[in-house]
């Protein structure tokens, strides 16, 4: 263990002339976390352990497919007639995040999209099925009722940044995870309040800033008060531990287990507090990074996101270059799923302790879309059976069960044994 000794600061102060201005103001009044014990760096290298529970969460692993489906659904719903020709979206596959043709994707989901012959030139047209229209109506109702909640989530997201501002392209890249509708930033008058300000950032790109004097508590701080771990008086030095949820069969070595215990007892720096005074190589800074990722995932609809999407926030949230190590060094807090050839970071607490997280208002609506999507394979299977050419029947093998029966005419005996 290494202890930062207060006598070092006093000795340096005595060696300096009396009128010499302090180059380092911390020499006069060092913060309390300078006097706490710090563990030496432990090269935590934990083997990745597959967990079928997190790999089977449908709302997470079908999120990419669902995003494309809802984008296409919105194109049809916006049309005054409620239907569009395939030519209107056939060349926009990349915009919808599709790797296959748009027409093929829509035909793979007949429970959502209904195809019919258009009025001109016998071109294929698409409209929404009655069930999809019903869920779309419910989705719009949720957006209207929970507009304040969505604004608060966006505000917290921006308040975690260094300068309390983020480029619009960064927000647009993550608005699916935040649960914001596609036109949220296109119509600021109806979605944003006076605390949001559009600004110009470096390079001439537009950004969105938050100008308010509000102070926010992180999810970890709220739960600590609820569990009476802390009194609710925050001075920046509370040692709030992270809830740990080890996967089955994942055992830690004694050295790593001791390091984890010391890590839990370090001061917790809220993602909404200033962190410029922290040494980026310290354990306290690492705990702050873990706290930022914990709070960020708690704001998302499924409490999960593609890891590469989170990497785009390094510059703005003060995350280190090797932020991926935070997921690898803390498998009791995060789970990395490699399903669908994509690395997805999942917050374990959201699925192991559901009372700890606020349910996103849009999560139930998205689950209804997924349940509707799951009906498509059944519909396609029935269509294949009904479209079988006339006269073709399912041939069943002729089973001769009387294998040991003798011909009554040849032997005159009508006895058989099975």
From TrEMBL:
- Extract the GO molecular function terms from the UniProt entry: RNA binding
Q: Which InterPro entries match?
A: PORR_domain, PORR_fam
Identify the residues that the record assigns to the PORR domain, covering every copy: 49-376
- One Pfam family here: PORR
Protein name in the entry: PORR domain-containing protein
Q: Which organism is it from?
A: Nepenthes gracilis
């Amino acid at each position: 263990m290494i202890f930062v000794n207060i006598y070092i600061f006093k000795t340096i102060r005595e060696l300096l002339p009396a009128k010499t201005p302090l180059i380092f103001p911390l020499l006069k009044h060092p913060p309390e976390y300078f006097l706490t014990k710090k563990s030496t760096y432990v090269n935590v290298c934990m083997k990745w352990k597959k967990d079928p529970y997190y790999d089977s969460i449908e709302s997470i692993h079908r999120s990419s497919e669902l995003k494309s489906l809802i984008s296409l659904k919105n194109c049809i719903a916006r049309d005054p007639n409620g239907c569009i020709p395939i030519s209107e979206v056939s060349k926009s596959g990349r915009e919808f995040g599709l790797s296959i043709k748009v027409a093929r994707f829509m035909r793979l989901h007949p429970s959502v999209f209904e195809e019919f012959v258009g009025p001109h030139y016998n071109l294929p047209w698409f409209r929404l099925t009655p069930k999809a229209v019903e869920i779309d109506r419910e989705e719009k109702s949720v957006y209207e009722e929970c507009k304040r909640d969505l604004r608060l989530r966006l505000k917290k997201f921006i308040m975690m940044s260094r300068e309390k501002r983020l480029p619009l392209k960064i927000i647009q890249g993550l608005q699916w995870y935040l649960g914001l509708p596609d036109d949220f930033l296109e119509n600021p008058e109806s979605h944003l309040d006076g605390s949001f300000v559009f600004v110009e950032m470096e390079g001439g790109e537009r950004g969105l800033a938050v100008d308010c004097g509000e102070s926010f508590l992180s999810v970890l701080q709220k739960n600590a008060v609820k569990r009476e771990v802390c009194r609710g008086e925050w001075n920046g030095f509370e040692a709030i531990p992270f809830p740990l949820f080890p996967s089955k069969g994942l055992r830690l070595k004694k050295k790593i287990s001791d390091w984890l215990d010391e890590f839990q007892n370090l001061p917790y720096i809220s993602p909404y507090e200033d962190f410029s005074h922290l040494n980026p190589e310290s354990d306290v800074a690492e705990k702050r990074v873990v706290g930022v990722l914990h709070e960020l995932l708690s704001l998302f609809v499924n409490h999960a996101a593609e890891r590469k999407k989170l990497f785009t926030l390094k510059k703005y949230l003060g995350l280190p270059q090797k932020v991926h190590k935070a997921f690898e060094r803390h498998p009791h807090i995060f789970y990395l799923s490699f399903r669908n050839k994509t690395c997805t970071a999942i917050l374990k607490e959201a699925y192991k302790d559901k009372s700890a997280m606020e349910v996103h208002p849009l999560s139930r609506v998205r689950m209804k879309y997924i349940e509707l999507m799951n009906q498509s394979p059944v519909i396609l299977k029935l269509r294949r059976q009904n479209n079988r050419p006339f006269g073709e029947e399912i041939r069943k093998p002729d089973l001769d069960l009387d294998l040991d029966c003798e011909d009554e005419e040849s032997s005159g005996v009508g006895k058989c044994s099975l």
